[in-house]
Amino acid sequence: MTDAASVGGPSRTARVDAVNALRFLLRADVTAQLRSYRSLVLNFALPAILLFAASQGKRASRLGGPNAVVNLALTVGLVSIGTVAYSMAVARDRDNGVLQRLRATPAPTWTIMGSRWIVQLGAVVVMSVMVFIVAALLDNITFTATGYFFTLLVALLGSAVFLSIGQAIVGLIPSADTLNAAGRLVYVPLIGLSLFGQSDLLGTPFEMVSRWSPGGCLETLLSATTGAASWSGETWGAILACLCYTLVFAGIGIRWFRWTAR
Q1: 259 close to 99: Cβ distance less than 8 angstroms
Q2: pLDDT 10s digits, 208-230
Q3: Is residue 217 within 8 Å of residue 248, measured between CB atoms?
Q4: pLDDT in the model for residue 198
Q5: Domain span including residue 76
Q6: Which of 78, 150, 152, 86 is nearest to 113 (CA)?
Q7: CA 217 to CA 245: how far, in whole Å?
Q8: Which of 24, 101, 150, 223 is the most buried (most CB within 10 A)?
């Protein structure tokens, strides 16, 4: 008679081992995140400082109103977390041989990178809540419970887009020094395009490019969830574009990712 406990035993054991490995990696990655001064500044201090600076005087009205300032702060935080902080952390660990040592352990490969994505998504939630609190304290900018919920969902969707861009960058560029320079070059246009995605100040062609860029699509979604604009067919198009960006850039990052610097 077949022992019932042995049916599916190896696969169940493998699943348990993967969960334990993921739990261990999450604990290690969270600790590393909290100990990284640069990550803390990029993830949390920069959006708060921007929100404070943009809310002073008539700057908020020049940027499109209080809701637009909140959207900009969220966008800056998402780009900082996904495109800069994440890619630099992975590149640094790759240069130091951390990824190679982790890959030699029994932990499944997907748990190594999956843990880092989960930590970054957690950082996005914390950053978003912090922006909501700072906006409420500085300018009494508040939303409905539904508005907060959907804005947080959009922030998570946006973080997937920018994390996939960061994954593509770290996959295509093996050197941490080169990646640092490339990340800074990518950072500026991502933020700049999001600023002009809702304006034809620089002409219709540029406005169209900005509107359908990753940052522009995020601004469209945030404008709808925070009440700055109504939900429309363009909003659904922005969701589809974000999903396409995520799949394309994540595919590039996974296909050409290197576990060692050489």
Answers
A1: yes
A2: 788 888 988 998 899 888 876 78
A3: no
A4: 55
A5: 12-255
A6: 86
A7: 10
A8: 223
Residue in 224, 245, 218 with CA at minimum distance from that of residue 210 = 218
For residue 42, report the phi and psi dihedrals to the nearest 5 degrees. Answer: -65, -40
User: Scanning the structure block, which residue is given the tokens 């429309």?
Assistant: 232
Its pTM stands at 0.85
Distance CA 242, CA 165 (A): 11
Residue type present at position 106: P
Give the side-chain half-sphere CA count within 13 A for 37: 0
- Please report whether residue 206 resides in a domain: yes
- What kind and span of H or E run contains 158? helix 145-172
- pLDDT per position as a tens digit, 147-160: 899 999 999 999 99
Q: With beta carbons less than 8 A apart as the criterion, state whether 91 and 179 touch.
A: yes
Query: What are φ and ψ of residue 82, in 5° steps?
Result: -80, -50
Residue 3 lies in a domain: no
Residue 54: inside a domain = yes
| Residue 197 phi, psi dihedral angles, 5° rounding | -70, -20
CA distance 76 to 79: 5
Read out DSSP for 136-151? HHHH-----HHHHHHH
In tens, the pLDDT along 35-50 reads 777 677 767 788 888 8
Q: Is residue 6 part of a domain?
A: no
Question: b/e for 94-126, b at 16 or more Cβ within 10 A?
Answer: bbeebbeebeeeebeeebbbbbbbbbbbebbee
- Res. 238: pLDDT tops 90: yes
User: Structurally, how many domains does the chain consist of?
Assistant: 1
pLDDT at residue number 13: 62
* CB distance 172 to 256 below 8 Å: yes
